[in-house]
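Incident log entry.

Two folding requests arrived from the same account within the same minute. Monitoring flagged them as a possible duplicate submission, but the sequences differ. Recording both here for audit purposes.

Request one:
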Amino acid sequence: MTPEFVTSFAADAILVTVKLSAPPLLVALILGLAVSIFQAVTQIQEMTLAIIPKMMGVMGVLIIFLPWFITVAADYMEKVLTNIPFYVGLG
């Protein structure tokens, strides 16, 4: 197993992680910012007001992007599984 091979797989793993986590995190960030501005303007400091929109937004994004998430994860898994013989030294 060469250092380039390991580095390539680590970079791919990080890239897949970023791809899969970015949409829900961005939606949570935007909704959290919007709710915080609304709370600051209206002086309503209710904790459920901050949590519920973020939860609903993240759930919506997960449902909408689920086919894409599965495709990205399956493509990465296929790459990993096709290189298993190389991991074990058989390739």
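Request two (distinct sequence, not a duplicate):
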Amino acid sequence: MIWHVAFCVDDLDEAMDQFGNALQVNWNPVKHYVGENMHADGTRFTLDTRLVFSADGPVALELFEKVPGTPNEPADGTIFHHLGYWTDTISAEQERLRECSWLHQGGPTDAESRAAFFAGPLGIFFEACNVDVNRNGLEKYYPDTAPGMKQPNRLLRP
């Protein structure tokens, strides 16, 4: 299930105003994320960016500031970056997507991984998101709370 559409922007505040005004979108609090990540070849890098998710659904908009030299850059000629979707097993998704010509581009693929990125022939990313990892403030987008979804979420959230 697709749960978010992400755009990579130069200026987060400006993009929030533009998207928010045009689409009448409200935003969750802005997060400043600094953390270690890795390219598909295992090379580690620090990701330091600000990001925000919309508070309105059923599909979230994600905006994040680009980080040159990392996967957090847009494809040439667009600010569109990726589609995020839920999966039970990121390692199984890696195998399934490989059969579809989508190759792992970064992020761990073990059972505890929050998410991993895959790129395909279209020049964009898919972000396979682990349904078993809690994303505080985004609970409404999990499969058990999204309209039309029937499978239960195994997360125990307050």
